[in-house]
Task: inverse folding
């Protein structure tokens, strides 16, 4: 080989290398969630959703390897949330942030996004107003206003005219209280009393006494899924309110599938409205449940945060594709505005104006399956629900 040919060969080699290596960068995704402590199962579901998505769709996008870095935030703690997001962006150089279980933690991250040139894809936090705090936030979960609104008419249609409302005293609880009241009163019902409980309430018997004393025919409730919901539903049963025929209305956070083995009969017959049931009957969900069960290790532990994470990864993959692995938060977010696909939960769309997910909301009832296990059985569909809690709609 002549010197000239060798130089040409080296030049072509370098060109080829550059077309691969300059663009085939590893894209890092930082996921914040409760991976330890009382809400660890919710974080475990984030991870199962992420792993299921990557198992079914590959670990690279357009030749860019995707590396996921997890950070543990055991309880709502805005200062720690902000510090973890900063560390992921500055030290780990993540191009995307995802996850976030609690609203206050999401609110602490959104002010950082513009300067960090980093989109945040929310897998859970469900207060409507989060979307107004940054143009770089996209949400693949739900809002409590969205899941709750259909319940108002359901209650009135069941002949329930007086309800007492009981919610956790923070963003998603207040949104749920307002959305239920609006829909229930528009249908002709009356909220006779509205109680807001501190987030760390663990003894629910005084609350159940107030429900009984109110004379209401039904109770509407929201608490964040995990130990609080388990405790609340147990208390509703143990204090005899369920047996007394007090009707129970709540979003599906209160009967998440992973709580059902512990609740057993206490949950049977409870009606909730939600965007996702593990028992949803579709080929997409079958595939998802199979992969997510494999990732989490036990079918009984699977719950809704897994589907928020699974669809969140879908959105992040689309962003990586649109930016060809380069860091451009605005371009990435613009690319998913209007994106629609068939999620394990049903048809969904990222609303371009709000960047929140439009989806079906299902009315479900806790039923006992042929295998003796309790599940959320979908009994009615409210199609194509936007977030009624956002002022822009
Ligand atoms: C929230 O903090 O936004 C949140 C947490 C748990 C839920 C729903 C909403 O089940």
Result:
């Amino acid at each position: 080989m002549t010197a000239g040919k060798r130089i040409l060969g080296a030049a072509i080699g370098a060109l080829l290398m550059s077309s691969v290596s300059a663009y085939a960068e590893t894209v890092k995704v930082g996921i914040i969630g409760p991976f330890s402590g009382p809400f660890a199962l919710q974080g475990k579901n984030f991870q199962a959703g992420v792993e299921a998505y990557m198992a079914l769709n590959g670990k690279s996008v357009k030749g860019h390897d995707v590396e996921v870095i997890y950070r543990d935030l055991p309880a709502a703690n805005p200062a720690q949330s902000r510090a973890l997001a900063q560390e992921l962006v500055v030290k780990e150089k993540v191009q995307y942030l995802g996850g976030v279980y609690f609203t206050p933690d999401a609110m602490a991250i959104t002010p950082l996004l513009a300067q960090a040139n980093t989109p945040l894809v929310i897998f859970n936090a469900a207060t409507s107003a989060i979307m107004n705090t940054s143009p770089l936030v996209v949400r693949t979960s739900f809002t409590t206003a969205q899941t709750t609104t259909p319940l108002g008419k359901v209650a009135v249609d069941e002949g329930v005219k007086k309800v007492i409302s009981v919610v956790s005293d923070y963003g998603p609880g207040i949104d749920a209280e307002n959305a239920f009241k609006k829909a229930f009163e528009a249908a002709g019902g009356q909220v006779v009393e509205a109680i807001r409980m501190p987030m760390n309430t663990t003894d629910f018997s005084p609350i159940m006494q107030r429900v009984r004393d109110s004379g209401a025919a039904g109770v509407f409730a929201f608490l964040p899924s995990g130990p609080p919901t388990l405790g609340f539903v147990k208390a509703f049963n143990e204090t005899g309110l369920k047996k007394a025929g007090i009707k129970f209305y709540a979003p599906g956070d209160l009967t998440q599938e992973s709580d059902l083995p512990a609740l057993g009969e206490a949950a049977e017959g409870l009606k909730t409205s939600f965007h996702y049931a593990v028992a949803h009957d579709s080929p997409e969900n079958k595939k998802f449940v199979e992969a997510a069960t494999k990732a989490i290790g036990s079918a009984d532990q699977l719950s809704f945060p897994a589907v928020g994470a699974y669809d969140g990864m879908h959105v992040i993959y689309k962003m990586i594709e649109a930016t060809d692995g380069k860091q451009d938060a605005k371009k990435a977010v613009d690319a998913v505005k209007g994106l629609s696909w068939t999620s394990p939960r049903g048809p969904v769309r990222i609303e371009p104006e709000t960047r929140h997910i439009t989806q079906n909301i299902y009315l479900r009832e806790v039923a006992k399956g042929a295998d003796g296990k309790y599940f959320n059985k979908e009994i009615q569909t409210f199609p194509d629900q936007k977030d009624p809690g956002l002022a822009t709609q």
